[in-house]
Amino acid sequence: MPATRSNLDQLAIFSGNPAFEQPLHVGRPNLGDRKRLMERIDGVFERRWLSNNGPMVQELEAKLAAMLGVKNCIAFCNATIALEILTRAAGMTGEVIVPSFTFIATAHALQWQQTKPVFCDVGPDSHNIDPARIEELITPHTTGIIGVHVWGEPCDTEALETVAKKHNLKLAYDAAHAFGCSRQGKMIGGHGIAEVMSFHATKFFNTTEGGAILTNDDDLAKKIRLMTNFGFAGFDNVIYIGTNGKMNELSAAVGLVNLESLDEFIATNRRNYHQYRDELAGLPGLTCRAWNEEEKRNYQYIVFEVDEAKAGISRDRLIEVLWAENVLARRYFFPGCHRMEPYRSFQPHAHMLLPRTKEVCQRVLLVPNGTAVGQAEITRICEIIRLAVERGGELTRRLDAKKS
Ligand code: T4K
């Protein structure tokens, strides 16, 4: 058990002795039963059917569609390719409105298809796209909106639907964070023309790498399936331009086994979330984003916001302190897509319409969660954060002096 930290000198940033020997990551994978996985993998090897719509992929697709109450589920090798294919299949050309506060894949998937991502600010008290700021971004080239359910907190789907209908725009969702979440009792997966999930290793539910498109539109699903497999409509018969977005059997096997542990993953995430909240309650300048517990949530992301003026320490300084302790906290999605290439060069004035995004990017701090982090470790992490924030002003002065 690492030594406790009760004064600033004990912090690793001064003492050189990290609280944890091994790094504690944000995004350590949740893993299901290994024995069951080996049985499934044995089956895959017995059949010698490794990819191309095999039985594991079909089973996973059917289970996900049933669980989310959506007619069609198409499994993918990752969510980025899924977003690219959806962009193309749905005819989202010209310009598409997206939040800047998202993982770069949302913007890149559009740009990769020569569609311009037009960045919209987040809402007040929200980390999601602000429906009230969309109309001012619409031009004659706009064809769609992609909302992102950041951290698994769903977008205001009704408001987005209203603006999309009014301007005849396609509305789809990047639901990479939102598997297992609901809005007004309806599972994420069934909103807009389609929703894209990520099953990357770092996600609450993973297939190592992977993703899925969920849609109730049968024609769109058909087109997406064709595009995902080079446009093949049977042996030797290519009827469409396509690429390779297929999930393989081993990934699907991991997914099927992980699905069996879903309730346990959620329960652990939720317990950790409450522990962080309780142990860090009442600190000036540090707020844990609260989940709406009346809805379904996966609790995968534990998101703090640091208000430097009140805490006396900046978010980045706090991260420095945590990294020295081997707690690899993250500042997703700093600095915002609009400040990354190629968008920074293509759209140098985009920041003028993104004041809230800038603020959120400066405040957000994610801490380790998931089945790989234990309760005793969380207590130690909280102790470090508590000390750093309670003595924020003094700590900042000492760090400034150390650097000069
Ligand atoms: N849309 C949104 C809103 C997204 O957040 C994402 C992905 C996508 C679309 C695209 O989905 P995919 O195409 O990936 O399916 C990570 C993930 O790579 C990325 O999937 C995820 N979002 C994003 C939020 O996080 P990085 O650059 O932070 O990855 P990295 O390598 O720093 O890993 C994060 C932490 O996880 C590290 O501390 C190490 C730990 N880790 C990672 C892996 C892969 C493990 O402990 N074990 C592992 O196997 O992007």
Structure characterization notes:
The protein is of the alpha/beta class. 39% of the residues lie in helices and 14% in strands. It has 15 helices and 14 strands. It has a 7-stranded mixed β-sheet with strand order 2-10-9-6-5-3-4, sandwiched between helices. Strands 11-12-14 form a 3-stranded antiparallel β-sheet. Strands 1-13 form a two-stranded parallel sheet. A hairpin with a 2-residue loop joins strand 7 and strand 8. Helix 9 packs parallel to helix 14. The chain is globular and about 70 Å long. The model has no long low-confidence stretch (mean pLDDT 96). The structure holds ligand T4K. Ligand T4K binds next to helix 4 and helix 5.
Helix content: 25-40%
Rounded mean pLDDT is: 96
Strand order of the largest sheet: 2-10-9-6-5-3-4
Bound ligands:
ligand T4K
Low-confidence stretches: none
Provide the gyration radius in Å: 22 Å
- Give the total of beta strands: 14
Gap between N and C termini: 34 Å
Name the shape in a single word. Answer: globular
| Count of alpha and pi helical runs | 15
Q: What share of the residues does DSSP label as strand, in percent? A: 5-15%
Structural class: alpha/beta
Order of helices and strands: HEHHEHEHEEHEEEEEHHHEEHHEHHEHH
Largest sheet: 7 strands, mixed
Write a compact overview of the structure shown.
The chain is α/β, with parallel strands linked by helices. The protein contains 15 helices and 14 strands. α2 (34-47) packs antiparallel against α8 (249-260), α3 (55-68) packs across α8 (249-260) and α4 crosses α7 (218-228).
